[in-house]
Design a protein that fits this description.
This protein has 170 residues and is mainly α. It is built from five helices and no strands. It is elongated.
Length: 170
Amino acid sequence: MKLKSLHDLFVQELQDMYSFESQIVSAFPKFIECTSTPELRRILMNHLQEAKKEGKTMWTLCKEFDIVPEGKHCVGMEGIIDEGLELITTQENSELVDLALISILQKIEHYEITSYGTAANYAQELGYTDAQDILYQTMQEEKAADEKLTAIAEQLIGDLQSQNIIEATT
């Protein structure tokens, strides 16, 4: 699609978000299966349910604006997810792999935060108040998930340090 207006850019963002939520729904069961940390597994399961809900929300928003949701494939999210899938297929499950997986998951969260925030800003400029509210709320949910991942990462780092798996070098 050739961009001719801010609305066109908004359309691309909605399609991108629908695409990446669909990709998350497909990939997260694999991530859940390989985690060895119960708290991380719980967060991933919750995020999987949120991604399903957010995908439906993006579908609904697209339909409200007469947009074909499947009109774009999110290559950026595909790359992040592929990186995560490569990690889990080349390593044995461990707390160290969980820590590496958290890095991938936070890249996903940051992509989502940026996308939802950008789309909310576009919606605000375009006067799409209801869409803006939905997108802003979703962005806040993604930020909360990112904070939970940070807390688990900090805990895992402490656990790995106590096991002498992480060595400080000077």
